Structures are given as structure tokens and as C-alpha cells.
Amino acid sequence: MRADPLHYLSDELESLKQQGLYRQLRVLDGEQLPHATFDRRSVVNLSSNNYLGLTTHPRLRQAALEATERYGVGSGAVRTIAGTMELHMELERRLATFKNVEAVVVFQSGFTANAGTVSALLNKEDVIISDALNHASIIDGCRLSRAAIKVFAHKDVDAARKILQDLPAAQRKLLITDGVFSMEGDLGPLPALCDLAEEFGAIMMVDDAHASGVFGRQGRGTIDHFGCHGRVDVQVGTLSKAMGVLGGYVAGSRSFIDFLYHRARPFLFSTSHPPGVAAACLAALDVLESEPRWMEQLWENTRFFKAGLADLGFNTGRSESPITPVIVGEAERAMEMSDRLFQRGVFAQGIGFPTVARAEARLRTIVTATHSREDLQFALDTLGQVGRELGVV
């Protein structure tokens, strides 16, 4: 009998179990709702990125159905051969207007948007200055580019300045930050970083995935929130969080987007979005522009939930967004807390190393516009009960 060349993976999995980091996938039965059924259990869902509840919005459903009926279920090719449909071009035009830029290119996911863009822009002669807590897709793009990577402490503008000061003036530089950090829920210091980029001639890039549909006028993101239009060369957004559908996009100058058409490998070598997806994304933009109540309700719910967590005595770090971490320390305790909550009707996913630092394991909670006040109060009451049992509060 042939020896299993993958036998070492069993040891790796056992190590994860011993560290309290092994997790089984929670299986959703039905729609992605604020109160949903996972693993046959009805729970208050605090683990979804569906900020505005648009995954089930009637206008998005109808747009997807009509486009599928008219154009079919798939595009049939990559964008650069036969897979560019008028729906894709319309979506890119609409996004460019929405983001106040010359042009946009849509990718299959936010991850490929980040990784494909960074790796296309730079080479081994260049250097990247990156926040320590930037998203994994940024980190992977940095590595793929083969550029030198200089990491500065989270939101430490002075540290970023010191790195830039020590680099040759003629060297190509990319300064990159998240707009909203996905595990901390805090905002990047965009105005100060834009100042640095301008002073040292660096390309300024912002990953605005968790700000799209959440911050700025009608959800235009942190660039709009901070008034940094015209100062950010590369903007990355998502279509799969607040927009409720699937994909990512990159926004910037016309020449930059044309370059990505020719050099971004995920764009070149992946089949384009199905027509139903593109049409639903267009409908999501319509909702953002014409139904402001969803963002208003999101922030009303966020303020209520954050205040409740503070009253209970939880450590929620430095969150400034609907992403609110409940920091508990070691991974094993975070996973135990998550499991107890789930058994009592609250789904708040535990997060441990390497996603976050070893001593900063947490529950990552996200409030949405469509949570009822009753669901949020139930979640707070249950968090308080379990937190006291485990000595977290």
C-alpha cells in the first residue's frame, strides 16, 4: 500500500485541536438573516458581513432573476477574451461615478482585487510600506510582487514616516492601509498617511472593503468620510459585504485601470461574474443611493450594541465601526465562549492566532441594519451571562 504523502496534515490538525483553534464550518440553512438557522439551531447572527441586509433585498433579488433569465447563468469566458458583457461595463462605470474616480475594474473577489493589484503594480526593485494589521489579501499581494516589505506598527504614522525617510528618494514606494481594519473595527489614519504619501512621492493605496456601504456619503467609504478625494491613487472596495452580492473592485485613474486590464493576473485568468451577480451589484448601488434608511439603521443599531457591551464591562478594543471585537485573551477561552453562546442562541465567531495576536483572541461581532432591538438585547444578555461564567467580565 502506498504511504500517504499528506499524513503530516493529521498532526497539524491535532495541534490545532490542542490549541483550541480547530473549528468546524457552521452550515447556514436558509437565508443570510440577522436571526438565522446554522447547524439546525436558530441563533442571533452576529457573524455576517451583511451590514445593510442587502443579500435578501427585493430589488437585488429581482435584478438577479431578470438578468439570469435574459443572459443565462454564466459569462462563459475571461474578460479579456469573450467574457466582458455590457453589464460588467455598466457596473464599472457606475462604480467610478459613485467613487468619484475616472475608472474602475471589477474583480471576482475582494481578495483577488487586493492581491492582483499590489502584485501587478510593483516588482523586486520597489518597496511597500504596510500597516501591521492590514488584511491578508494585501499581505499576499505584497509577497507576490517580490517588492521589499516594510511594516509599521498599527496606525503609527510616525513609524511610517521614519521608514519613508530612510528610503532612496528615487525608489518606487507604495504606502498601504485598510480603511476599516477587519478584526479591530478601527479606521486607518487616512489624512495623515495621505500627507506622508504626498511628501515622499509614494503611491497611496486604501483597502476600503469594510467601509464600502458603511462610511461616507451613501456608503462611499473612508476616502469620502475623511474628505481625501484625489489623494488616494488606489482604492479597493468590495461588492460582497454591505453591497450584499459578490466580488471586489479597484478604483483610480483611467491609465491605472487600463494597466490592470493588461497585468492583473486574477482579472486575466478568471472567468468574469455571472450576469445575475453584475445586475444585483447594480441594484445594490441603486439602493445605496436611494434608500438611506439602511445606513441610518445600521449606525443606530451599532451605537446601541456598543453601549450595551460597554455597560457589561467587555473589552471592545478601539472599534469605530459596526465591527466590534469582544477581546477575551487566549484562544481556548474565546472558542469556549463562542461555543457556549451558540448553544444558547447567539452566533459570535471566535477568532484566534494567526488571524489575531496570540493573547488577543476574541469574538468578532458585527451588527447589521436589519437586526431587531429585541435580537440585540437578547445577544447582550446572553453575552453577559456567558462572559460572567468564564470570568471575562
Rg, Cα atoms, Å = 21 Å
Number of strands: 13
Beta-strand content: 15-25%
Number of helices: 14
**Please, how many domains?**
2
Largest sheet: 7 strands, mixed
CATH architect. name of the largest domain = 3-Layer(aba) Sandwich
Write down the CATH topology of the largest domain: Aspartate Aminotransferase, domain 2
Q: Indicate the mean pLDDT.
A: 95
* Outline: globular
Q: Can you identify the CATH class of the largest domain?
A: Alpha Beta
Under CATH, the homologous superfamily of the largest domain reads: Type I PLP-dependent aspartate aminotransferase-like (Major domain)
The portion of residues assigned to helices is: 40-55%
Order of helices and strands: HEEHHEHEHEHEHEHEEHHHHEHEEEH
> Distance N terminus to C terminus?
54 Å
Task: Strand order, main sheet: write it out.
Answer: 3-9-8-7-6-4-5
Structural class assignment: alpha/beta
| pLDDT < 50 stretches | none
